[in-house]
Design goal:
The protein has about 700 residues and is α/β, with parallel strands linked by helices. It contains 22 helices and 23 strands.
Length: about 700
């Protein structure tokens, strides 16, 4: 059974793996994975770990308003940008990048452009933007050859000492360049065009781009990183299958120290005037400075994983920080990713199929659903982008499919077993069978059981005296009470035969204490009957008594009958003898008779007395029969005295001292077996038995 369930679980897992793998290849989970990645980035964001050596100077709304009040409208004169460069150079900035387009001449004249170019040339560490384009109609293909060569030279200079790798993530046929004078004064030219993911979120950036397959143009972060760390090799930077580096965002917008552009320009003017600047140039010593736009009206607002609104230059700063920290994210190979996906799908299907308890299945399902999240989180901290969405979908599909199959296949089996057994097994026993149906062999098997037979004394006369409806009411009440005790004690109800109850213990499940449980149940039945007898006598007009026979031994147990109707029952000599003992109770005046095997297995906790050695109808081998008196420690002193006298008298009887035995039996009051032996003693005194008499009596009735 376990092998069958395991094979089914593995088949479900394999199917889930194949389906999810196909959907993943088709890009179904791409957007979900991006959102899951953003969630990881948010959970593990640590703004304090962002590099303090990367700072921003932003043309923000404050700066625009400040100069607006002085009559300077946007676009600003480039001399203001030159002031920024001079202030940063005075402070010893490591590198400067202007994320501000300068593709057309200043509206303030050529001298304004020359002033900016002079400042950039003097600093020697200023990088300016170019805009690569897919539009064939842009200025790219038609640029002046001299400008093209200058562009190549500045792109190569910005690529750093190691140079670009052999391939680039994207190829662009055209480019928009800054003014030639400004381009010539810059240390390098970098591409500022970065495409977001399909959901308009910026998460990745290529390190290099290809211009018409002629030469490579570096990205902003690569140019700046190689400028401040010349030994950086692009081949050591992990990229995805599209050649893009995943940006590690240490925090939302505002993570990096930012200065209003107006404050820096004003600080430069204060320096020239000999007053203390509001932003000392020393604050930029060794810093990489990115100058960009943050005012909403200047249209350079982007969306990142941690902020829906952030300056485009801050995304470039985060990418630069990723390079400088060496914190780019690696990707597992396809084989490793597939193996991980397959493992989760197969394990989920297998485990859920093997578990039987609902609580265990629920716990396992919760654990498996958390595994992709834990795996993705652990991989993130190790610097690996391990997919969450596809593995989570594979686990979920595998769990759902396994649960459906469990319900459809095993649920049908469970419902069948419940339907078969709920009439004669306790719910607890049924649950144990359902946990492992392999314990139950349909058909027949030989095992040791303790058989229980009960019958209402004088039921024929009772049934004749009661109206049919009243009789049915009595039987229902009587049988319900006794059956509840049997099932609660782990017994199996075999059948009812009128007023008779037939049950057994140690099947279908193992119960090493089956003899003790059966005997204790018999006592409980008699106790319940004694408690209910006065009420029933008033209700039904008769005093109700019940006889019970118990016997322990081998029997054939299983579902027996025809293919259309069968019962779970037990057959064999053990069962027959229990029936005979119940009947013998009438002859001995005893309500609880048990066979010798039952006494041996349960006798240490219970009090029995030997009643006789008999040969039942149809059998030649004699058996000793005993009366069950009660549990040790719970019988009265009077009962104990009576049992002591009875035992002494029976010993004398077996030694043929019939006169002495008769005398003691006669002294025991209200005891039917003692009366029976007293009469036997009288007869044997009158007609002594032969010397070879074995004290065995033949029971004349079944």
């Amino acid at each position: 059974m376990l092998k069958k369930r395991g094979a089914r679980g593995l088949a479900v897992g394999a199917a889930a793996f194949a389906l999810i793998l196909g959907l993943d290849a088709a890009g179904v989970f791409r957007r979900l994975e991006w959102k899951a990645w953003d969630a990881r980035m948010s959970v593990f964001a640590r703004p304090a770990k962002a590099s303090p050596d990367i700072v921003l100077i932003l043309v923000d709304q404050y700066s625009l308003d400040f100069y607006q009040e002085q009559g300077i409208t946007w676009p600003w004169p480039r001399e203001l940008y030159g002031a920024i460069i001079r202030h940063l150079a005075a402070g010893g900035a490591a590198a400067i990048f202007f994320d501000i387009a300068m593709t057309e001449g200043s509206r303030f004249g050529v001298e304004d452009d020359r002033a900016f170019a002079a400042a950039a040339a003097a600093a020697g560490n200023v990088f300016v933007p170019v805009f690569l384009s897919l539009d064939e109609g842009s200025s790219g293909p038609g640029i002046d050859p001299a400008a093209g060569e200058l562009f190549r030279a500045k792109a190569e200079a910005a690529s750093g000492p190691s140079g670009p790798p052999g391939s680039a993530a994207e190829v662009f046929p055209s480019v928009t360049l800054p003014l030639t004078e400004i381009l010539g004064a810059a240390r390098g030219a970098v591409n500022v065009r970065v495409n977001p993911d399909a959901d308009s979120i910026y998460r990745r950036i290529p390190l290099f781009f290809s211009y018409r397959d002629d030469f490579r143009v570096p990205s902003v972060p690569w140019a700046l990183a190689s400028a401040v760390r010349p030994g950086l090799d692009p081949r050591t930077v992990p990229v995805d299958r599209e050649g893009r580096m995943v940006i590690r965002f240490y925090g939302p917008a505002g993570t990096y120290r930012a200065y209003p552009a107006a404050a820096v320009i004003n600080a430069y003017a204060q320096t020239l005037e000999g007053t203390n600047p509001q932003v000392p140039p020393e604050e930029f010593a060794g810093k990489t400075v990115l100058v960009g736009l943050s005012a909403v009206g200047l249209f350079d607002i982007k969306a990142g994983p941690l902020s829906g609104v952030m300056p485009g230059v801050e995304i470039q700063a985060a990418a630069l920080d990723t390079l400088l920290h060496g914190k780019g994210f690696r990707f597992p190979s396809r084989g490793a990713a597939w193996a991980y996906l397959a493992f989760l799908a197969l394990a989920a299907g297998l485990v859920l199929s093997l578990l039987r308890k609902t609580a265990a299945q629920a716990a396992a399902s919760a654990g498996f659903l958390l595994l992709p999240a834990f795996g993705a989180a652990a991989a993130f901290q190790a610097g690996i982008w391990l997919d969450f969405s596809a593995p989570a979908a594979a686990v979920l599909l595998s769990l759902v499919a396994s649960a459906v199959l469990n319900y459809g296949v095993e649920g049908r089996e469970r419902r069948f077993l419940k339907g078969v057994f709920h009439h004669y097994l306790s719910p607890a026993v049924i649950d144990r069978i359902l946990e492992d149906p392999g314990r139950l062999r349909l058909g027949g098997e030989e095992r040791e059981i303790t058989s229980f037979f009960s019958d209402v004394a004088g039921f024929t006369s009772i049934s004749e005296a009661l109206e049919p409806a009243v009789l049915v009411s009595f039987l229902n009440e009587f049988l319900t009470g006794m059956t509840d005790l049997i099932l609660d004690a782990g017994g199996t109800l075999d059948k009812y035969e009128g007023d008779a109850i037939i049950a057994f213990w140690n099947a279908p499940l193992d119960d090493p204490d089956h003899a003790l449980r059966a005997a204790q149940t018999a006592l409980a039945c008699q106790a319940r009957l004694a408690a209910a007898a006065p009420e029933w006598e008033k209700k039904y007009g008769r005093r109700i008594r019940m006889r019970i026979g118990l016997n322990t031994g081998p029997a054939i147990v299983g579902n027996m009958g025809s293919s259309r109707r069968f019962d779970y029952t037990a057959i064999g000599d053990t069962v027959n003898l229990a029936s005979r003992l119940e009947s013998a109770g009438k002859q001995y005046g005893a309500d609880l008779l048990a066979g010798e095997a039952t006494v041996k297995k349960a006798g240490e906790e219970l009090v029995f007395r030997e009643v006789d050695i008999v040969r039942v109808v149809g059998k030649t081998k004699p058996v000793r029969i005993y009366e069950l008196i009660g549990e040790k420690g719970k019988i009265s002193g009077e009962t104990a005295r009576r049992l002591e006298l009875y035992g002494r008298a029976l010993g004398l009887f077996r030694r043929r001292a019939f006169g002495e035995a008769e005398d003691i039996f006669s002294r025991i009051e209200n005891d039917a077996p003692a009366v029976l032996y007293r009469d036997r003693c009288r007869k044997l005194r009158a007609s002594p038995p032969p010397d070879d008499w074995d004290f065995i009596y033949d029971l004349q009735v079944k």
